[in-house]
Known about the structure:
CATH class of the domain at 179-285 in chain A: Alpha Beta
Helix content of chain A: 25-40%
Oligomer: heterodimer
CATH architecture of the domain at 179-285 in chain A: 2-Layer Sandwich
Number of helices of chain A: 13
CATH superfamily of the domain at 179-285 in chain A: CO dehydrogenase flavoprotein, C-terminal domain
Number of strands of chain B: 5
CATH topology of the largest domain in chain B: Ubiquitin-like (UB roll)
Largest sheet of chain A: 5 strands, antiparallel
Number of strands of chain A: 14
Order of helices and strands of chain B: EEHEEEHHHH
Helix content of chain B: 25-40%
Number of helices of chain B: 5
Distance between the termini of chain B: 51 Å
Largest sheet of chain B: 5 strands, mixed
Strand content of chain A: 15-25%
Radius of gyration of chain B: 16 Å
Shape of chain A: globular
CATH class of the largest domain in chain B: Alpha Beta
Largest interface: A-B, 28 and 29 residues
Strand order of the largest sheet of chain B: 2-1-5-3-4
Number of domains of chain B: 2
Amino acid sequence: xxxxxxxxxxxxxxxxxxxxxxxxxxxxxxxxxxxxxxxxxxxxxxxxxxxxxxxxxxxxxxxxxxxxxxxxxxxxxxxxxxxxxxxxxxxxxxxxxxxxxxxxxxxxxxxxxxxxxxxxxxxxxxxxxxxxxxxxxxxxxxxxxxxxxxxxxxxxxxxxxxxxxxxxxxxxxxxxxxxxxxxxxxxxxxxxxxxxxxxxxxxxxxxxxxxxxxxxxxxxxxxxxxxxxxxxxxxxxxxxxxxxxxxxxxxxxxxxxxxxxxxxxxxxxxxxxxxxxxxxxxxxxxxxxxxxxxxxxxxxxxxxxxxxxxxxxxxxxxxxxxxxxxxxxxxxxxxxxx
Amino acid sequence: xxxxxxxxxxxxxxxxxxxxxxxxxxxxxxxxxxxxxxxxxxxxxxxxxxxxxxxxxxxxxxxxxxxxxxxxxxxxxxxxxxxxxxxxxxxxxxxxxxxxxxxxxxxxxxxxxxxxxxxxxxxxxxxxxxxxxxxxxxxxxxxxxxxxxxxxxxxxxxxxxx
Lengths: 338, 162
């Protein structure tokens, strides 16, 4: 497949890059790792008049802590994050997400900031960084501004970034001395997009949760925050009951649709299970494991019912489902005929 | 525009359109057809080449991005009429069936062994998880990489001892 023709520009400085973007208006695309942009261009879903390759810009490959926070520059590859020993412990959400991004060869080129700018609701970094309250630093013709991730993502593949702006780095605030997190992803195979992903981040102080961040992948128009769950967790003791309640709230925050990867119901249940698992695993990593209470039935009557009535893959109603619904109607399937 | 790339140790240059993909530069302009185009959608890894030693999918990179850099293709593995150890390994352990994915598998495996000379089976499967074999001959591919790791280790032990 051949992309449409474009002008290729590989500026040596950020100023030069901004200048080019200004010149092409909204008809230029920034190329960092290219692992999302180039496939889109090959499919001609994107056909920019100019491609601005920022790989030659200096100083954008920093992955380091600074004043307690973390900086990830625009040219930091997924692989660098995967290999970084820095991204454990307090930054565990990011360390857990990095090896789950696409496949190992794509991780060699793809970048964290590029993934954010691409704003795919199935992107993993969006959730991991949203859960950690990250913000991007954008340079434009009028200077530098920071955009919190929750304001960056406006819709599928749509951001609040101006076409003349470049994300130079993403900054993650100091999570405090006692914090941890994880990222759980369900994928059909390595390299596939997430069926569902859940990012969990917790900070704790005096035996109670300080800040809680829970963000969801592939179950809405953007990476979503499960705000109600976060609020329920903040300030509370992490007990079995609190964990189960938060997991249920997270499932409510999800707005999945049915597709080849699973039905909406199924995805919502995965959000619930992953949130619970994630919270338990973070509690354990923080040295305060929370045992599950007496296990309920593995498969509830309600979920059995749902499976019978809805096709597992397409989410469409099955014939049995249609018949049962008719039977439940007053008068039964024959409409009350004698 | 003109692009200059060191391919398998040789300086090569070509006049290309910016939209030309690296895999097309290799196959069509430089006539190095060992690099295969499989899915053409960044999924299968058949087109894997090494860029400055790192595996990349050459169908998902523009040729102009490789300006001034070193590319290794499957043609660059054997030297002086002698197979590269990873090629020997694939031969010894029958690490291929139809052979279509093999160039990509060889290069991804080579990069793995340079980084981790003694990989576990899981390390190998993890490192090769971006390369698909539609004959599903993964077991022998894993065996081939393990064979090669042992071969390289015993060779270097022999050189070290002599």
